[in-house]
Write a structure and sequence with these properties.
Elements (H helix, E strand, L loop, with lengths): L8 H14 L5 H20 L10 H13 L4 H20 L26 H9 L6 H16 L3 H5 L6 E2 L4 E5 L5 E5 L2 H13 L1 H5 L18 H14 L9 H14 L4 H8 L4 H4 L1 H17 L5
Antiparallel strand pairs: 1-2, 2-3
Helix pairs in contact: 1-2, 2-4, 6-8, 6-11, 11-14
Length: 305
């Protein structure tokens, strides 16, 4: 155990982030988010001349939350920041740095979860058919879109795919998800054929004289970035008439899960395919289906109104 006596908040935060990275295997996105949130909290405490973790009390937490409201932070953003602080204090308690939890008794208003709005099957078909597969870039784009929808991937999972992770003979991809947890996800014939075509006809052209372990690369032969992939999706959405406010990489993942459940897939199977650690996270998709069923009922049942 680390010697914690009179631990400065700044050092405690560094120790906690190191724990998340090394022992918990947190992703870079998670670490970046927690770092920003906890440094915001530290800055507030410094302004209140509270530099040591033992000095942090319930009044400081409440004042911080009040300050976030004044600065215009949304309820969901405040909940995210509060979650990062909660994890921080749980760690301090476990390491016996502090004897009592300053968050005990503080309850934030529950944020209403907004339901994901998936694409329709027709919209998915239009999007997947939009790339011009007669060009190397078009073939790459088509393979990426087929893959993200076929496997319901997070954008970070799609762009981190390596050629060695893809088994086109048996139709599986090995995904390294959140917390470095691995899962095998099947893909269908459309994705298999498109990725094969991309590998045979386009990838070497894009690589030129370079080499890359990543499956999907940009025109310079480097790993595709999140920003560029988002730009590609917007280009094709515009081309096939899908409103930009309705589309994002995560919406495609939502659509994958919703379409499976609509066709009778069980919730646990969808949970495993998505890589959710908790079934509760997956259950939001059942709410989407209930909402759709209600609309169908109200539209078609003769005595619904």
């Amino acid at each position: 155990m680390v010697e914690w006596a009179k631990m400065k908040t700044s050092r405690a935060i560094k120790e906690y982030l190191s724990y998340l990275r090394i022992e918990r295997g947190a992703s870079e996105n998670t670490l970046s988010s927690y770092t920003n949130d906890l440094l915001l909290f530290e800055k507030f405490l410094n302004e209140k001349s509270t530099g040591e973790v033992e000095e942090i009390e319930k009044t400081h937490i409440r004042a911080f939350v009040s300050e976030l409201h004044k600065r215009g932070y949304s309820p969901s953003s405040i909940m995210r920041i509060f979650s990062a602080i909660r994890g921080f204090f749980k760690y301090l308690l476990r390491e016996e740095v502090i004897k009592k939890d300053p968050l005990k008794g503080i309850i934030l208003p529950r944020v209403k979860r907004s339901l994901p709005k998936p694409l329709t099957l027709e919209e998915v078909e239009k999007l997947l058919s939009a790339p011009d597969t007669s060009t190397p870039l078009g073939l790459r784009d088509s393979a990426m879109l087929e893959m993200i929808y076929a496997a319901g991937l997070r954008v970070s999972e799609l762009l981190s795919l390596k050629t060695e992770n893809v088994d086109l003979t048996y139709g599986y991809v090995r995904i390294k998800g959140k917390g470095k947890k691995e899962r095998l996800v099947p893909i269908g014939e459309f994705a298999i054929e498109r990725v094969k075509e991309y590998l045979e006809k386009a990838r070497r052209t894009l690589l030129g004289k370079k080499e890359s372990e990543y499956l999907f690369i940009n025109r310079r032969g480097r790993k595709m970035t999140r920003q560029r992939f988002w730009g590609i999706i917007k280009e094709y959405a515009k081309k096939c008439g899908i409103p930009l406010e309705k589309i994002s990489p995560h919406v495609i993942r939502h659509s994958f899960a919703t379409h499976l459940l609509e066709r009778g897939a069980d919730l646990v199977s969808v949970q495993n395919l998505l890589g959710h650690s908790s079934l509760t996270t997956t259950q939001i998709y059942t709410l989407v289906n209930k909402e759709r069923l209600r609309k169908v009922y109200e539209e078609y049942h003769p005595r619904a109104r």
